[in-house]
Amino acid sequence: xxxxxxxxxxxxxxxxxxxxxxxxxxxxxxxxxxxxxxxxxxxxxxxxxxxxxxxxxxxxxxxxxxxxxxxxxxxxxxxxxxxxxxxxxxxxxxxxxxxxxxxxxxxxxxxxxxxxxxxxxxxxxxxxxxxxxxxxxxxxxxxxxxxxxxxxxxxxxxxxxxxxxxxxxxxxxxxxxxxxxxxxxxxxxxxxxxxxxxxxxxxxxxxxxxxxxxxxxxxxxxxxxxxxxxxxxxxxxxxxxxxxxxxxxxxxxxxxxxxxxxxxx
Length: 265
Prior knowledge:
- The protein is 45% helix and 13% strand.
- The longest helix has 22 residues, at 163-184.
- A five-stranded parallel sheet has the order 2-3-1-4-5, with helices on both faces.
- It contains twelve helices and five strands.
- The mean pLDDT is 85.
- By secondary structure, the chain is of the alpha/beta class.
- The protein is globular and about 55 Å long.
- The protein has a single domain, classed as 3-Layer(aba) Sandwich (Rossmann fold).
- Helix 6 packs across helix 7 (163-184), helix 7 crosses helix 11 (247-256) and helix 9 packs antiparallel against helix 10 (218-227).
């Protein structure tokens, strides 16, 4: 079957706090596209809307590939509603995999879709090279209970970080990135985007690259950008020393582990 006649599923795989929300939201507003967002996030309303009472988003839920496919296909039937939708985006995070929200690996998911003759499956891999700022963003979001805001208010109370936890998080993040790259080598069409280069200053860069990856014409992309603007922001607009109560302690631990560049730049 020609890829022209196939429906397209695009997995956006990421590590959280790397700009996925703004990119997914922009892509989901392109004519002919739909985005489910973080499909295993507890805040995602799709399972309830589709009546999947057995579907769970908690750690250890062990959702199977069949659970995911059921959700995607039921959602596809509802979202079409007479509209021609060709591309469906959905997000899975590394935490979904490693906290056993899923009972399958990303490679197993790729193998499943590669065996389907009716689907054109692709992967967008979002990374954040500065793993410490990703960790800080995550801790701040939990501390403030605000996950999708604009620039952080200057009167926000400082946060105290656990140095050991911070270093473990950074090392785990970097190791899982390597594991993911090895697992997907040459298995599926994939594009890698970084928060620093493609999202932080101008999310339209990521938007443009993904649509080009999906073979949209330059003219189409330029037209979309006239109509579709970012609706979310997560940028930390203050230096970490103005955010972290025990900054000197954190800086020393980062330096001892070769990560001082993550706060010195």
